Amino acid sequence: MQQLLTTLLSGLTLGMVYAAFALALVMIWRSTRVVNFAQAPMAMVTTYVALTLINNGVSYWVAFVAALLSGFVLGAVVERFIVRWVEGKSEVNAVILTLGLFIVLHALAALVFGSSFQSFPAPFGLQGFRVGDTTIALTGFGVFQIVAVVIVMLALLALFIKTDIGLRMRAAALNPEVARLLGVRVGGMLTLGWALAAVVGSLSGLLIAGGSLVHPSYMDSVVVYGFVAAVLGGLDSPHGAVVSGVSLGIVLQVVNGYVSPALMPMAGLLILVLVLLVRPGGLFSRTATRKV
Fold it and tell me: Is Ribonucleoprotein there in the keyword field (predicted)?
């Protein structure tokens, strides 16, 4: 029973890590209709910004805010000066561009910050809570991860459903020509979408890095499972990304603990294939099928 509880709680915190990254992908998709494969190295760069400040004596929370702000600026700059050159053209162009940006940011980070492993602090404890004589596999930082991801999910839902800005962002992404006719500044909305998505991505980078080691490729292992979680939930669904991320994390931890760690990638692929065979748009997709 103790092993099962430990496995489930470990899966919960791991799933929240996947959900955090999936939320960044959902944000960029809903606001620009682009799958940003460079989301991970963009988050990695902002995490190094925070680490540099912390190593120079700045408090964790000041560095935390600075990383989010740098993510906002980085996202806006990438959209305005790089992605905008391929907007309005084939969607494949944007995908290829973000893959190229993935490689470039990795190389630049290695040159600027170095390739060595560096310890990143956590704002809360990394030891499990004690209940009587038992230590459960849920840490103070794990609770922070859960709360942060839930808050971001609710904020994204409120942005796209309750606010005029969210409506304008979706209109600019879905039909820019009509949106322009209705007075929407499409370019500004796309820039804002990239900037806000980069903020969410920066948060995911900080949550993943807390209490562990960072290096230019530290988020690469999360990219695959985060992308799987986003697709499983439906790229249009923030709550789908969180539910799918948590579910994926728990399933993978069960496979890790009771079957074999080597089968975790296979399990993730199998889940993705099975779900997409049943619901190609994702579990929480609201896309309606047109009937002739």
Answer: no
